[in-house]
Amino acid sequence: MALMDSLAIQTFLIVIVILLLDPVIALEYPQELINELYPDLGRNGNNAVSAPPAEPPSLPLPPASHSSPHVPALFVIGDSSVDCGTNNFLGTFARADRPPYGRDFDTHQPTGRFCNGRIPVDYLALRLGLPFVPSYLGQTGSVDDMIQGVNYASAGAGVIFSSGSELGQHISLTQQIQQVMDTFQQFILSMGEDAANDRISKSIFYISIGSNDYIHYYLRNVSSVQSLYLPWSFNQFLAQTIKQEIQNLYNANVRNVVVMGLAPIGCAPYYLWLYQSKNGECIKMINDMILEFNFVTRFMVEELNQELTEANIVFCDAFEGSMDIIKNYNRYGFNVTADACCGLGKYGGWIMCISSDMACSNASNHIWWDQFHPTDAVNEILADNVWSSLHTSMCYPMNLQEMIAKNSK
Q1: What Enzyme Commission number does this protein have (predicted)?
Q2: Catalytic residue of the set 80, 135, 163, 389
């Protein structure tokens, strides 16, 4: 009994020291402490940071629709909101390759998606008549693997190169754009320049990035960034950087782009815990910054549509769509709006999701899956809004279905 008490005290002291060093350390929980708290995890060999697997994991995925796809391909650029397995191949704490992640996915296995099931681009791929898009690092590199799309997204990635670097390796926005260009070169070598450019110009490019520039950079005041940039200036910098990368894509014959705004991370369980929210109320200071980012980014998209001939660039306001769900949770079938399905501490926001024992039995009635990521059910609602404005209009100047109809005329 004395030994157990000693172990409990030792564990408690380690946790306190970690949190005193940096409250965000809950995002980069040390493997030694994970092993101590959850010894069963150590038996399956799933370390938080490990070497890339020798072979890409076999992942049976739903086939494309029997009807012809609406577009040739879907290409995805972004962070953990749309990472489908990139970080499985990197040395990083930002991994979703162990249960309970993926428990409600089609294969009921973790795939690297930061969700209990599907992420938004999975639902969009099916709406487009395409199969789920493979990770750039998770396929063989042959053109046949990439011909219907590639997912370059990496958890922890940001617009700023160093955002999320304390978690370990990730692939930043600029690096993802370079991977896109490498893919285009392979297309040109394989099918010829004209055919490759035609395919690229008719495909959809989906960009979802920026949250980590707040979570892991601005809100942590890395390099005293808050004394150098007020939120408005910081948002202008992020938006202009994204604008330049979209222009680079346009110069490579990309014409159809969906730019996702940021979700209300001020409502995420991690920040509810960190700022000691009363009754699950969102952290207004953080959400005000996100609202501002979305405003600036929407204006940037409007500028690009005026500047770039034949470009169809859509801005989809994830904040607007998410707040509609939070405010009208009963209509959507949710009854847990603030607590994460998987996590420890108040709101499930203190410690990241690292064990099936930490997860609720039914994620479908939860808005939040873990500290930062929504459940599969929320992802489906948001994807339907992007596709057809089914629940609420959150895409400007048109939704994805309208963009496709416009291109077919």
Answers
A1: 3.1.1.3
A2: 80
Q: What is the pLDDT of residues 187-223, one digit of tens each?
A: 999 999 999 999 999 999 999 999 999 999 999 999 9
Does the structure show a pLDDT above 70 at 8? no
What residues contact residue 111 under an 8 Å CB cut-off, 6+ apart?
Answer: 57, 59, 84, 85, 96, 97, 101, 102, 105
Q: What is the pLDDT of residue 62?
A: 53
Domain ranges of the chain: 68-266+284-320+392-408
Options 370, 376, 384, 389, the catalytic residue = 370
| Residue in 277, 373, 376, 384 annotated catalytic | 373
Active site (annotated) includes residue 224: no
Q: What topology is assigned to 68-266+284-320+392-408 in CATH?
A: Rossmann fold (3.40.50)
Q: What integer is the mean pLDDT of 402-406?
A: 96
- Mean of pLDDT values over 38-58: 39
3-state SS string for the chain:
CHHHHHHHHHHHHHHHHHHHHCHHHHHHCCHHHHHHHCHHHHHCCCCCCCCCCCCCCCCCCCCCCCCCCCCCCEEEEECCCCCCCHHHHCCECCCCCCCCCCCCCCCCCCCCCCCCCCCHHHHHHHHCCCCCCCEHHHCCCCHHHHCCEEECCCCCCCCCCCCCHHHECCCCHHHHHHHHHHHHHHHHHHHCHHHHHHHHHHCEEEEECCHHHHHHHHCCCHHHHHHHCCHHHHHHHHHHHHHHHHHHHHHCCCCEEEEECCCCHHHCHHHHHHCCCCCCCCCHHHHHHHHHHHHHHHHHHHHHHHHCCCCEEEEECHHHHHHHHHHCHHHHCCCEEEEECECECHHHCCECCCCHHHECCCHHHEEECCCCCECHHHHHHHHHHHHHCCCCCCEECCCHHHHHHHHHC
The band of 348, judged by pLDDT with boundaries at 50, 70 and 90, is: very high
Residue 25's pLDDT is: 37
Residue percentage of the chain with pLDDT more than 70: 84
In tens, the pLDDT along 217-266 reads 999 999 999 999 999 999 999 999 999 999 999 999 999 999 999 999 99
Please indicate whether residue 370 is annotated as part of the active site: yes
Specify whether 190 is catalytic. Answer: no
